[in-house]
Fold this protein.
Amino acid sequence: MAQGTCALRRAAATDAGAIECFLAGYAETSMFLRSNLAAHGLGASSTRAATDFILAENISGICGVVGITQAGYVLAQMPSSDIDLSELRGLWAGRDVLGATGVPRHVTAALTALGIESVQPAFDQNEPLYALALDDLERTPIPLRAPVQQDYAMLLDWFTAYGTDTGTAFSPEEAERRATRAIENASVRVLMDQNEPVAMSAFNATVADMVQVGGVFVPEARRNHGYGRRVVSGHLQEARAAGKAHAILFAANPPAARAYEAMGFTRIGDYRIVMYADPVTI
């Protein structure tokens, strides 16, 4: 293998430590890859977030990582300009792609190599990427609660509206899955005001020292009262108390960006999100 060019191979179980070490060097733009690796490892799994990792490496080691989840989402971290992606299409031939996320040029390179960059997506946006050191977060307590089964209908409405607001237009099945998952796991919090639920926040990726905020929603009738900022702040205070040191998020629109900036988040780049209306077969 040449010193410069990074060629591809499928990751083996013994590569987990090296993959995490590499991705940690690009922590702010590798959250989905790192979180999926930590939660599901490199073994075969039918779990939606379980990921098939393809490594780009040269004689010095890993120089890029690209993955596809069981659900069909392509995740890319390829900072080197010397990565040879020509074999990627063959490695994943027959797989269905529902979307892709990552640094814009990394996503473009991966979709081009897969032969699907020209397919018109239902949603394709470069969103501003923000970071915050949680030591800098406010310390006024904001009480939140976890969703319960009685919240299911409300959550179904909220996730449906969230998909519409962000342009991703969740299918009924996807909204149902998210509402169910919100109740079953510990990554979603609800803000109450006078015993009424008024906003939610979710973490869509978590690693040892960092969380990625996603799924922030305030019903339209409740907006412009600071609920979005409060629910995110309270959720991140919980994360800080649990030992997390940093938070990442990408803002779906200018009002959200202004709210996050008011909390202390700093823009550090852009993050591309691509979603297809129907699966695209490689």
Q: What stands out?
A: Residues 7-118 form one domain. The radius of gyration is 19 Å. The chain has two domains: 7-118, 133-270. The chain has eight helices and twelve strands.
